[in-house]
Specification:
The protein is of the alpha+beta class. 21% of the residues lie in helices and 26% in strands. The protein folds into 2 domains: 342 residues, Rossmann fold, CATH 3.40.50; 156 residues, Galactose-binding domain-like (Jelly Rolls), CATH 2.60.120.260.
Length: 524
């Protein structure tokens, strides 16, 4: 069994359904030290609270055996979309999903509280997509309850010493809660978003593959949603565009750029192969927190809402950095939290710098030019993944981008060692004709040394096919990669994919000029 096959099999369909959609990431493993014999019952111990509007929020709490019965700080951990309050105190860190496990938290002296968000499982109400006015206030109700518990350490009366962790939906709720409640001492949102509009509807294009998976996962779990959520998922699964109502809901101020209101030190974890919430969502949150003059750190690891097909490197970074962040800002210990920005490339090598600064494309970067004609047909598109271990992935294979046979190809050559970090800039001159009025083309970059699409990222963009010449310039999805001297990538313009269905109906588009410029960086 190859290393890739082994990694993929650890993320089999059953595990993905349990931990991928439900838990907010894909299943991974990590080795942790066994906790000392419990001096107090660790749980799960059920609790329930009444939120501001009468909604009942249910969950579990766990007392740290390391506390020896004394008061201890608490960490709140919310589940992913379609998930449930965690109940296993021996759960390890999910290195593929990016979230620290209950076991290392308990072993390191933290009590833990998990809960079912509104609309999930035994909680009442309807899910509102991590709205600051709903799910954010639900967390405040939990904090009110927590401040009255005899085992909870307090910073002051009514104010518990508390941090938050969790991935995907459990990451998004941290921004909602921290924007509202200043009692939260630190957050570590994993694979979350800055805006549901930009992440789920990039360049006015619905992410059909993810919409199908997320809606199906919620249905299977019996989740109860705001009806707008269900309608929007159904539209996205079957169409290129969304209704104005759906777009307004996704882009509402209650769910967009909540990091701009954050006052809690934030450790932002994001996956380089996350095709649901790509790296630019984390970068936008990082920028907002930085403007607040709040301590912030960002880590990009190979994982998230996606499958790592390359070497993930040292996966212990996730647990180590999360514990250091909580120890510094919840326990208030004088410990180092490391470099302000850490990222792993597609070869498994980790890099770091004191801060994250967006890399702009310019005359000093790497660029390439080309041209070609693309047939607008479904055959020969990007994905599904059919490589080693694909049989273990089930429907998730459709969410992985692959090298496309039907494509306009533009070679990108590297003459020196280069780190590519950020959003490539794509500029096009084109003309074409096709039936219908709504058309999309997709852009991706292939690492020719492995044949793997960088980050599995696809950038959709609209094209006007009326026979006249048009020009377009836009940023592509972020990538994090390294290239050695003599190595090459390939920019591909493709007509369709299993990740994003463009519904091609024939015709063609001729790109008389294609230009791509890559953002490059120095540093370690």
């Amino acid at each position: 069994m190859t290393p890739t096959t082994s990694r993929l099999r650890s993320r089999g369909l059953a595990a993905i359904c349990a931990a991928g959609i439900a838990g907010g990431g894909f299943l991974g493993t990590a080795t942790i030290a066994k906790a000392a014999p419990a001096a107090v019952p660790t749980g799960p111990i059920a609790f329930s609270v009444r939120s501001f509007d009468g909604t009942t929020i249910t969950g579990n709490y766990f007392r740290s055996p390391a506390s020896d019965g004394r008061r201890a700080p608490t960490v709140l951990k919310g589940p992913g979309w379609g998930g449930a309050a965690e109940s296993d105190p021996s759960a390890p860190t999910d290195t593929a999903g990016g979230t620290i496990g209950l076991a290392p938290l308990l072993a390191n002296g933290y009590n833990v509280v998990t809960w079912n968000p509104r609309g999930f499982r035994t909680s009442t109400g309807k899910a509102q997509a991590d709205s600051v006015l709903y799910e954010g206030r639900d967390v405040s109700a939990i904090l009110n309850w927590l401040s009255r518990q005899s085992w909870a350490q307090l910073d002051r009366p009514g104010d518990p010493a508390v941090g938050m962790v969790g991935g995907s939906y459990g990451g998004g709720v941290q921004w909602a809660a921290a924007a509202l409640d200043r009692r939260i001492d630190a957050i570590a949102p994993d694979i979350s978003w800055n805006s549901l509009k930009t992440s789920l509807y990039p360049n006015t294009t619905a992410k059909s593959g993810w919409s199908t998976a997320l809606y199906g996962g919620a249905l299977a779990a019996g989740q109860r949603n705001n009806p707008i959520i269900d309608t929007t998922f159904q539209q996205a699964a079957n169409s290129i565009t969304l209704s104005r109502q759906g777009v307004d809901f996704l882009g509402s101020w209650q769910r967009t750029n909540l990091a701009a209101w954050d006052s809690a030190p934030a450790l932002i974890l994001q996956g380089t192969v996350d095709t649901l919430f790509p790296l630019d969502e984390a970068a936008a949150n990082y920028a907002s927190v930085s403007r607040n003059r709040v301590p912030v750190k960002m880590v990009w690891f190979c994982g998230g809402h996606g499958v790592c097909l390359t070497n993930p490197g040292d996966t212990s970074v996730i647990e180590r950095d999360t514990l250091a962040w909580l120890n510094r800002y919840v326990k208030r210990q004088h410990v180092s939290t490391g470099a302000g920005f850490e990222w792993v490339d597609q070869t498994g090598v980790w890099h770091s710098s004191a801060t994250y600064r967006p890399n702009k494309v310019g005359c000093g970067g790497v660029s390439a030019n080309g041209k070609g004609t693309l047939s607008l047909v479904s055959a020969g598109g990007s994905g599904p993944y059919t490589g080693p271990g694909a049989d273990q992935l089930g429907p998730v294979a459709a969410l992985i981008a692959t090298k496309a046979p039907n494509a306009v190809n533009v070679p990108i050559q590297f003459n020196r060692a280069t780190k590519v970090l950020g959003a490539p800039r794509l500029s096009l001159t084109y003309s074409g004709t096709a039936p219908g009025t709504t058309h999309r083309v997709l852009a991706q970059i292939v690492d020719n040394s492995t044949g793997v699409v960088l980050g599995s990222q696809l950038t959709p963009f609209p094209v006007t096919l009326d026979g006249r010449t048009h020009r377009l310039s836009l940023p592509m999805e972020y990538v994090a990669a390294s290239a050695a001297p003599g190595q090459s990538f390939t920019l591909q313009l493709v007509a369709d994919s299993s990740q994003i269905n463009t519904h091609p109906s024939g015709g063609s588009v001729t790109f008389s000029k294609v230009s791509v410029k890559l953002p490059t960086t120095g540093g370690r």
